[in-house]
Amino acid sequence: MELAEELQKQTNNTHRFAYYIKGAVLADAGRLQEAVDKFHSCIRLQPQDPEPLKQVAKCLYRQGRFQLALEAYLEADKLSKQPDPEIYCALAECANSVAGVGGAGVEWARAAQAAGGGERAAALLARLLLGAGDVPGALAAYDHALASHACGADTLAAAGALSLRAGDPRRAFQLLGEALSQQPTQHAAALALAAMLLQHKDVDAALARLKVALSAHPTCVAAHSNLGLALLTKKKFVAALTCLSRAATGAPLSARAAHNLGLALLWCRRPASAFCRLACAAALRPTRHHTVLLIGIALERLGDSRADAAYNRAVALSPEDPLVRLNLAGRHARAGRLADAVEEARIVAQLLEYTPDAQVSSNLATLLSLLPKIELQEIELPAAESEHSTTIDDTQETKEFQPDEV
């Protein structure tokens, strides 16, 4: 700033580059409005130069004045003598932030990619397509970016996470592994890879990845929540509750964090605390049937008569879910409504013909073995794999049922 001031004194305040440097320094310091004034002075000295106008637009965007930033970038595009991918990318981001012109953002991103915007333009196009709900288009954009450019860890992680959501775990594992090989502390890649490992029951490897994610982003709610669930499967209840409590505290309006903490509290036989957390989750997301089902289980353990209403509400929200139906059958059996339990068991068996699930099948077989032999000959059980464990203790005597867990 001192050198720029000396240049201004020597040239009687007509040194254009000194104004530009002052504006750049002020923008880096966060003094955006002062930076805009300096860039305007630079524009007055040479109106045909698009660079100061681009910096003005960038400051306006950082101020949240997206419409003015969009207009400034359009003016800079008019002054530019050749297609500028930086301007097109900025136009796409501005259009995506301005209400009513979000669709134009995709077109600007395509223009940036055609103008040679490289990895930034391709990743931006994929992100905008994903925001618009076009998952196949976003996958194609990421594939084009990966085939055409040497992409960094952030792009690889985003492409891997999207592949995982799209149902291509092999491709996702490859991309996430490449992202972590480039940047071992890449938060998104470590988190997504840990989710994959948890799905495949590799808890120890998932724990290692989650610790990497937390070292890079200590306040990540999803990492704390997944770490708590992983510790819960290893029966480290105190550590699991600590992690899940941190997640719920860090995101008090997250229905998923409250749901996970309520589930852990049920595992730890604290139904009153679990009910409070699950009620918060249901208030935030009333249509999540598994949350309502857990509320029914908590109320049943508390001896509350409203448990039946919660079970029925869960079934109404998802009548085709065999797990929900199985829990309702168990509730009927424990309440002595054996005919209703048999009817629900029959419905579960029919649902499992279309969506086989070895765990649910095994639990259904255990439930039927505990019921008195009434009308059971009509229920044909699907085959259940022996290596899956059951959540119902088959050492219970007939009619001695305990509240089961999801």
Automatic annotation (TrEMBL):
One cellular component term from this protein's GO annotations in UniProt: ciliary basal body
UniProt KW keywords: Repeat, TPR repeat
InterPro entries: TPR-like_helical_dom_sf (IPR011990), TPR_rpt (IPR019734)
Superkingdom, natural source: Eukaryota
TPR repeat boundaries on the chain: 16-49
Skewed-composition ranges (Basic and acidic residues): 385-406
UniProt record, GO biological process: cilium assembly; protein localization to cilium
Keyword Repeat carried by entry: yes
Chain spans, region Disordered: 382-406
Keyword hit for Cell membrane: no
Identification of the protein by name: Bardet-Biedl syndrome 4 protein homolog
Natural source organism: Vanessa tameamea
Lineage summary: Eukaryota, Metazoa, Ecdysozoa, Arthropoda, Hexapoda
